[in-house]
Amino acid sequence: MMYRVGEPVTVAARAHDGHHRTPSYIKGKTGRIERVHATFRNPETRAYGEDGLPEMPLYLVGFARSELWADALAGGEYRVYVDVFEHWLEEAK
Amino acid sequence: MSARWDSRIAPVESGVHDRGGLPTNEPIDRSEHTLADWEVLTDALAGALARRGLVNVDELRRGIESMPPEEYERVSYYERWLFSVETILTEKGVLVPGELDRRAAG
Predict the structure, then answer these.
(1) How many domains does chain B have?
(2) What CATH number is associated with residue B87?
């Protein structure tokens, strides 16, 4: 596990043609590790008939609403939590 | 308001399914839906195929994401599941192309 709870991380802003579980609205955004879940088979290869090994670490990452939608009018400030695999995370920018 | 705002979020392309966080002026329908029999059967079919090791959830999702965008928008949730199951099973040679259409017509 590369990251620990409380560490700031930035989600990689890269395109990925195939199946992946990182939604666009968090790409390039900075959040904080909230929980280290465990390791899981990689859906990016498992989606194409492979075994998904090696297993990849999965984290719960929390983002401030204002980091994701700076111009959102309604709802005030709240946090958004997304499960993100380690290979989509980078040191916080 | 633009249909997609990916360019304001990050310089990445995304598929039709990748719509979390997109702006909309349409209210969200939070009512419970009654499922038709074929929808319940579709759920059971996908579950049975997973237990037999023929289709996993990541393949099911990938199959849904491979739908042509117009078709994805037009059809319902479980129609997308059916499209994906047929796609994956055809890839794996469990079904031959057109087999379901022929059987449904027969």
Answers:
(1) 1
(2) 1.10.472.20
Q: Which of B12, B21, B59 sits opposite A13 (nearest CB)?
A: B12
Give the global pTM: 0.86
The pLDDT of residue B24 is above 50: yes
Residues of B in contact with A51 (CB under 8 A): none
CB distance A64 to A40 below 8 Å:
no
A64 to A23, A46, A77, B98: CA distances (angstroms): 16, 31, 7, 48
What pLDDT digit, counting tens, does each position of A14-25 carry?
A: 888 899 999 999
- Check CB contact of A19 with chain B, cutoff 8 Å: yes
Q: Is the pLDDT of residue B101 over 80?
A: yes
B49, part of any domain: yes
Q: Check residue B22 and give left, alpha or beta (phi > 0: left; psi -120 to 50: alpha).
A: beta
Q: Which of B6, B56, B58 sits opposite A24 (nearest CB)?
A: B6
- ipTM value for the complex: 0.89
Tell me: pLDDT of A45 over 60.
Answer: yes
- CATH number, domain A8-91, options 3.90.480.20, 3.30.230.10, 2.30.30.50, 1.10.238.10: 2.30.30.50
Domain that holds residue B91: 36-106
